[in-house]
Design a protein that fits this description.
The complex is a heterodimer of chains A (about 220) and B (about 210).
Chain A lengths: L1 E10 L2 E11 L4 E5 L6 H8 L7 E6 L2 E3 L10 E4 L11 H11 L5 H14 L15 H13 L5 E5 L10 H13 L3 E5 L3 H7 L2 E6 L3 E6 L1
Parallel strand pairs in A: 3-8, 3-9, 6-7, 7-8
Antiparallel strand pairs in A: 1-2, 1-4, 4-5, 9-10
Helix pairs in contact in A: 2-3, 2-4
Chain B lengths: L1 H41 L3 H16 L2 H11 L9 H27 L2 H9 L4 H31 L11 H12 L3 H27 L5
Helix pairs in contact in B: 1-2, 1-4, 1-7, 1-8, 2-4, 3-4, 4-6, 5-6, 6-8, 7-8
Classes of the chains: A alpha/beta (about 220), B mainly alpha (about 210).
């Protein structure tokens, strides 16, 4: 179980997250919804360790967890809204970079594991391509593969449907549900309530000015 | 005319050798130094920043010719003596490193911050991020500007005449004055054009190589 306890965060004097408490069961999908400015991105940046909260703590399976401590690789993986693939690296190199550099895996093993991941995500044919040669949906799957290669316990998505063609939304939903089948805990930040209803076990609604509401889907 | 050209060619080619030596060694010295300075320009430690700003201002704000004269004729006044060639290299490397530092700084800043965050959440350390993400992308960004400086350097190297070094232009000047003939200078021009053409070609090749991604 992943828990957030009394998280507070303000930005330029405005309280964005106010004593936020949240928990996600292992292997389930949590959708965080809310209008722009409600703090969805702020929350994601805290969970991924890109920013530090003013106060509060994170707990994984009962143990305190510090998201910015990633010496052995982060336990929380992130799929950015704009994917942020490394443009100068091939698809396979995007996926194997962190396992080799951070987990110190031998290149051979990292490549074999990476190829397996790409196959699982239907990207085998693109392994040697560069990000600019891919479609938006393919880029997103590379971003997911890159995050999964670090074997995170929790995978976070920032607005996974916003950069995609509407016809691809169903396949992302399917992919997220497939990963759930494999036991991955997932947190999806989205403004798309319909999408959230489609995939989530639990929906958490962020309101501007730090008001929250928790619904079971 | 052909006989005359052939007779002065050995002198011109030995001058060209000096030009290439100044050129090559300056590149080898100035690019790494410029890289180091650019990292300093990006550092958050303010005093270092001001110091490097001052350095870049001095180097870009005064003529290279003046800097050459200063290193060779000026420094001995305070007891620091270099031979001609070393003095030329020191002045050129210090000067060009300042230009390269500004180019690299701009290049680093042009790399999308999202790339750095993406590397960060994957757990890459900052040095790893610099080596694997920032520098490779910066190379592509700065290549055209670096190419400009490289071409400039070939021609700027002719400034070494002021401290009495026999480079290509000086060899042509000597022959021209001795024989009261403009042909040596014409040949000098042609040799410079050949050198810059080779550089341009090599830089284009490099730029084309980096087109493998966008």
């Amino acid at each position: 179980m992943f828990q957030l306890e009394n998280i507070n965060q303000s930005f330029k004097g405005r309280q964005i997250l106010n004593d936020l408490n949240l928990s996600v069961e292992s292997g389930s999908i949590l959708a965080i919804v809310g209008p722009s400015g409600a703090g969805k991105s702020t929350l994601l940046r805290l969970m991924s360790g890109l920013d530090q909260p003013d106060s509060g703590r994170f707990i994984i399976d009962g143990q305190p967890y510090e998201p910015s401590n990633r010496e052995q690789g982060a336990r929380i993986g992130v799929v950015f809204q704009d994917f942020r693939l490394f443009p100068h690296l091939s698809v396979l190199e995007n996926v194997t970079l962190a396992p080799i550099m951070v987990k110190k895996q031998p290149a051979k093993k990292a490549k074999a594991d990476g190829a397996k991941l790409l196959q699982q995500l239907g990207l085998s044919a693109q392994a040697t391509a560069y990000p600019f040669q891919l479609s938006g949906g393919q880029r997103q799957r590379v971003a997911i593969a890159r995050a999964l290669a670090m074997q995170p316990e929790i995978l976070c998505y920032d607005e996974p449907t916003s950069a995609l063609d509407p016809s691809l939304v169903a396949s992302v939903a399917q992919l997220i549900l497939d990963l759930k089948q494999q036991g991955m805990t997932q947190i999806v930040v989205t403004h798309d309530i319909q999408f959230a209803n489609q995939i989530a076990d639990q929906i958490f609604e962020l309101q501007p000015n730090g008001v929250q509401q928790n619904d079971e889907a | 005319m052909i006989d005359y050209s052939l007779s002065i060619l050995p002198a011109l080619l030995s001058g060209a050798q000096m030009t290439l030596a100044v050129f090559g060694l300056t590149i080898i010295g100035a690019i790494p130094l410029g890289l180091l300075l650019s990292l300093g320009l990006l550092a958050k430690f303010k005093p270092l920043h001001y110091l490097l700003d001052l350095y870049v201002w001095l180097m870009r704000g005064t003529p290279l010719l003046l800097q050459l004269i200063f290193v060779f004729y000026g420094l001995p006044v305070v007891g620091i003596v270099f031979n001609r060639f070393d003095a030329a290299l020191i002045a050129f490397i210090l000067n060009y490193a300042a230009y390269f530092a500004e180019i690299f700084r701009g290049g680093f800043q042009a790399v999308d911050n999202g790339q750095i965050e993406a590397a960060e959440v994957l757990g890459l350390t900052y040095p790893q991020t610099i080596a694997k993400i920032i520098v490779p992308q910066t190379v592509k960004i700065v290549l055209p500007s670096v190419g400009n400086e490289v071409i400039n350097l070939i021609k700027d190297s002719s400034l070494v005449y002021v401290i009495g070094i026999g480079d290509l232009l000086r060899a042509g000047n000597v022959a021209s004055a001795r024989d009261v003939n403009l042909l040596p200078l014409l040949l000098v021009g042609i040799i410079y054009l050949l050198l810059t053409a080779i550089c341009t070609w090599a830089l284009r090749r490099l730029e084309r190589y980096y087109r493998y991604y966008r």
